[in-house]
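# nightly structure sweep
# worker-07 picked up a monomer target from the shared queue
# config: single-sequence mode, recycle default, output format = structure tokens
# input follows
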Amino acid sequence: MYIIYKSEFFMNNPLSPHLQIYRWQITSVLSILHRITGVVLSLGTIILSVWLLCLGLGETYFNFFNHLISSFIGRTIMIGYTWAVCFHTLNGIRHLGWDYGYGLELIAVKITGWTVILSSLVMTTIIWFLSVL
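# output follows
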């Protein structure tokens, strides 16, 4: 009688799907980005709360916070946060359409996915262009 141990059984089996052979799809990338932007929006709420706290504490704290946000790193964070808001909102609208049964065909999923990406970038650009004026 031959006993198969776990190590012998799994030793020659490949990992599936392996990252070297896995082809990324627009649906999986957008799903991952939707989850990541949800976390970013939660963290951005902390920044908003700190801003409101500084507003309540007085002019000195508020000016200090504005100085931090006006720096290169602060602006980069705020631009990223703006894109996260735009992307998460547009992708949420796309998901609402799916809930009602619209756009579930493969070609529609790809078109709306790319539309969400491009629209979120355009919206972020417009928002920041208007904020500079």
